[in-house]
Specification:
Elements: E1 2-7, E2 13-17, H1 22-28, E3 38-44, H2 48-60, E4 63-67, E5 76-81, E6 89-90, H3 92-97, H4 105-112, E7 114-118, H5 131-139, E8 143-147, E9 150-154, E10 165-167, H6 173-183, E11 189-193, H7 199-210, E12 214-216, E13 223-226, E14 234-237, H8 242-255, E15 258-262, H9 270-278, E16 282-286, E17 289-293, E18 302-304, H10 316-323, E19 329-333, H11 344-349, E20 353-357, E21 360-364, E22 373-375, H12 379-391, E23 395-399, H13 402-407, H14 411-417, E24 421-426
Parallel strand pairs: 2-15, 3-14, 6-7, 10-11, 18-19, 22-23
Antiparallel strand pairs: 1-23, 1-24, 3-5, 4-5, 7-9, 8-9, 11-13, 12-13, 15-17, 16-17, 19-21, 20-21
Helix pairs in contact: 1-7, 4-6, 5-6, 6-7, 8-10, 8-12, 10-12
This protein binds uridine-diphosphate-N-acetylglucosamine.
Length: 428
């Protein structure tokens, strides 16, 4: 099994190109199910999750074709075509591998009048139920049956969903995405209240509008969707990955360096940039992206995760690694997931001083972290261990690299290009 080996202590300096956003890609790809015409996505990141999603769509009858990039384009270009849906079942085997598979539920139901999707079960960062995905679809007129670990959703008489109004009791990114994709082809109007406002949802809505959907309130918590009879194909560029950009900003912070995040969009990551500035980093904006530079020692922070525009749960682990070397005590609170501190025991093995009390963590800054062999448990946790390794004295080996490959494109290549001593090692 591959591992990432790092010799810490290098100050990182230079340009890091930011890839297309994984979390946007995984909600834009299922939109191919909503039309018989071709959907072309550009700036798709080369990631295991994107390949897994393409594989799932193939099983449903969507053909996916990766073409060479055209002049001026970055990332990967994929054309998806669903002229005929051959199956409306997302099997356990796929959903188990990648939770985002549940995002075929809404579009498949909208197009085919039925969809059967395996229940995802728990995952490393918590329980992660899908009850809200089902409730909102029910409010839009779907009939929902649960049997043998699967959810079967159907529209009345296998036709189009009527549409309806739903107020989310808690903000859910995934449930908002499923609801929007189901609503665009409904017979009537759907209103979503307390909808998630993440930039990836704005990206989804913008793509759907380009496909002919009628959506008002994009970027707000109140989305009004007027169903249309059919959608057309289009070509659309995936937004830059704000979490990847934030992660590399933390790499500048923890190594005392200066990184130019090429392609990063400040408006997508204001809470992250505010936190970086409070930690003492210098933030500069330029026409190609954002420059993040260390400016003396790191200052401690108090941070609480919350839905956008708040501080993202997907940035918590990386900030914890950085704050482990701040001058003073930081306080972190995780409000989205109940079990998202799996990186803490591993960070402690590298010398971090962290105490967990339920959903809160106290991080007492230390002078120096030390390299160790550490085990990743999930995607962002893995990145926090890489960050700690970049700053640590000595060698660090991060095992279970498949987590990183799900969400960070060419990680070791991007980091070595800015001065890190890092390589992928394949066990014999
Ligand atoms: C969440 C994060 C998203 C992050 C992703 C991967 C938020 C609001 N969402 O999205 O930023 O990129 O994880 O780390 O920050 N919930 C229910 N029932 C449901 C759905 C969700 O109770 O049917 C709860 C969840 O347990 C959680 C909260 O709602 O406490 C938000 O979950 P949700 O946004 O749906 O999760 P993801 O879409 O995975």
């Amino acid at each position: 099994m591959d591992s990432i080996w790092i010799k810490g202590g290098k100050t990182l300096e230079g340009d890091i190109p930011i890839s297309g956003a994984k979390n946007a890609a995984l909600t834009l790809m299922p939109c191919a199910l909503l039309t018989e015409e071709k959907l072309t996505l550009t700036n798709l990141p080369r990631l295991a999750d994107v390949d897994t999603f393409a594989h799932l769509l193939n099983q449903l009858g969507v053909s996916t074709h990766v073409a060479g990039v055209k002049k001026g384009e970055v990332g990967r270009r994929m054309t998806l075509e669903a002229d005929e849906i051959v199956s409306t079942v997302a099997p356990y085997d796929m959903v188990r591998k990648m939770r985002a598979s549940v995002l075929v539920l809404g579009p498949m139901l909208a197009r085919m009048g039925e969809a059967t999707v395996s229940l995802p079960g728990g995952c490393a960062i918590g329980d992660r139920p899908i009850d809200l995905h089902l409730k909102v679809l029910e409010c839009m007129g779907a009939e929902i049956e649960l049997a043998a670990g699967y959810v079967k959703a159907s529209a009345p008489r296998g036709g189009r969903l009527p549409g309806g109004d739903f107020s989310f009791p808690v903000v859910s990114v995934g449930a908002t995405e499923n609801a929007v994709m189901a609503a665009v082809l409904a017979k009537g109007k759907t209103q979503l209240f307390n909808a998630a406002r993440e930039p990836e949802i704005v990206d989804l809505c913008n793509l759907l509008v380009a496909m002919g959907a009628k959506i008002k309130g994009i970027g707000s918590a109140h989305l009004i969707i007027e169903g249309v009879e059919g959608l057309n194909g289009t070509t659309y560029e995936v937004m830059p990955d704000r979490i990847e950009a934030g992660s590399y900003a933390c790499a500048a912070g923890i190594t005392g360096g200066s990184l130019n995040l090429i392609g990063a969009r400040p408006e997508d990551m204001q809470a992250t940039l505010n936190a970086l500035a409070q930690a003492g980093l210098m933030i500069e904006f330029h026409d190609k992206g954002i420059k993040v530079s260390a400016n003396g020692g790191l200052k401690p922070l108090a941070l609480s995760t919350s839905p956008f525009p708040g501080f993202a749960t997907d940035m918590q682990a990386q900030f914890m690694a950085m704050l482990a070397m701040a001058k003073g005590d930081s306080f972190l609170e995780e409000t989205i997931f109940e079990n998202r501190y799996m990186h803490v025991p591993e960070l402690r093995r590298m010398g971090a001083d962290v105490d967990i009390h339920g959903r809160s963590a106290i991080v007492r800054g230390v002078e120096q972290l030390t390299g160790a062999s550490v085990m990743a448990t999930d995607l962002r946790a893995s990145m926090s261990l890489v960050l700690a390794g970049l700053a640590a004295e000595g060698e660090t080996e991060v095992l279970r690299v498949y987590h990183l490959d799900r969400g960070y494109e060419r990680l070791e290549e991007k980091l070595s290009a800015v001065g890190a001593t890092i390589e992928r090692r394949t066990a014999g």
